[in-house]
């Protein structure tokens, strides 16, 4: 009897841990859109009306989330900010700019070739005077959505390693596709030039 009780407790514990590692995507219609993925992603934390008290979101992600909240609630974005939701192409862009600095955040998704999953990417990059100057929370991250469970969870970059600098310590930034399927990787060289490479999507992963 004790073994059965322990087994049941352990099973429940595993289920709870699994639930914490993924989150539900709610949607209407035949399939989720980029809006549904954004809503699920930005609903990770419960407190929306007081960002100072939120736990688990870094400063950059929280800025992206606040812009989404304004859009979701039908509010105007602050002067100098741009927020684009391209539902047709599955793409969201948020830019906040002052005289010298640009904060850029993107989200998009791909349908995987197995017909069972979707891949979601979130990309954050900072620029100063037109050149990439990475902030503390810059980076490219991915989540995978399961059509059967209607949940998405963090996953590794499929087919490549996300880099933040070259071997020569030149900064690296990424750009997500609003149209097309490929990611652009840009190395910002110390001589002032840039070098670009394209990460091509084949329905399962990316490759150069």
Q: How many H/I helices?
A: 3
Q: Helical percent range? A: 10-25%
Total beta strands: 12
Strand content: 35-45%
The average pLDDT value, as a whole number, equals: 87
Largest sheet: 8 strands, antiparallel
Q: Based on CA inertia axes, which overall geometry fits?
A: globular
Rg, rounded, reads 19 Å
Task: Report how far apart the termini are.
Answer: 57 Å
Structural class designation: alpha+beta
Main features:
3 helices, 4-stranded antiparallel β-sheet, globular, alpha+beta, disordered N terminus, 8-stranded antiparallel β-sheet, 208 residues
Topology:
Layout: H1 2-21, E1 22-24, H2 34-42, H3 59-72, E2 81-86, E3 91-97, E4 101-111, E5 117-128, E6 131-132, E7 139-146, E8 151-155, E9 171-175, E10 183-188, E11 194-201, E12 206-207
Antiparallel strand pairs: 1-8, 2-3, 3-4, 4-5, 5-6, 5-7, 7-8, 9-10, 10-11, 11-12
